[in-house]
Amino acid sequence: MTTEIENIEYTQLEQGKSTEKASQTNDVLSLIGDVTVELQAMIGQCELSLQDLQNLKKEQVITLAEKTNEPISLLLNGKTIACGELVVVDDNFGIRITELTPS
């Protein structure tokens, strides 16, 4: 059995070729751009004892640790990808993005 081996020439990539990188990103997005993901908005958190949790009643108010003017975190798979301000869009909540988190 004869195995034929060929040499492969590799092209040296230059740093700073953002147009090539952008083109590659666009190629990938054209393949996966229709995939949907679920984002979560974290408006705040608090700590409760199990007893307090068990004693929750309808219409009871739970105070969160965050202040009303603090940014809202936008999470993808539990990782913060952006921060923003809570806004109202028609009858829905929305988030105005104020900061993107570097990946």
Shape estimate:
elongated
Helices, by number, come to 2
SS-derived structural category: alpha+beta
Beta percentage is 25-35%
CATH architecture title of the domain at 37-100: Roll
- Terminal Cα separation, in Å? 49 Å
Cα Rg: 24 Å
Characteristic key phrases:
alpha+beta, 103 residues, 4 strands, single chain, 4-stranded antiparallel β-sheet, elongated, Surface presentation of antigens (SPOA), 2 helices
What's the structural blueprint in terms of helices and strands?
Blueprint: H1 18-32, E1 39-42, H2 50-54, E2 72-76, E3 79-89, E4 92-100
Antiparallel strand pairs: 1-2, 2-3, 3-4
In short:
The chain has two helices and four strands, in the order H-E-H-E-E-E. With 103 residues, the chain is α+β, with helices and mostly antiparallel strands.
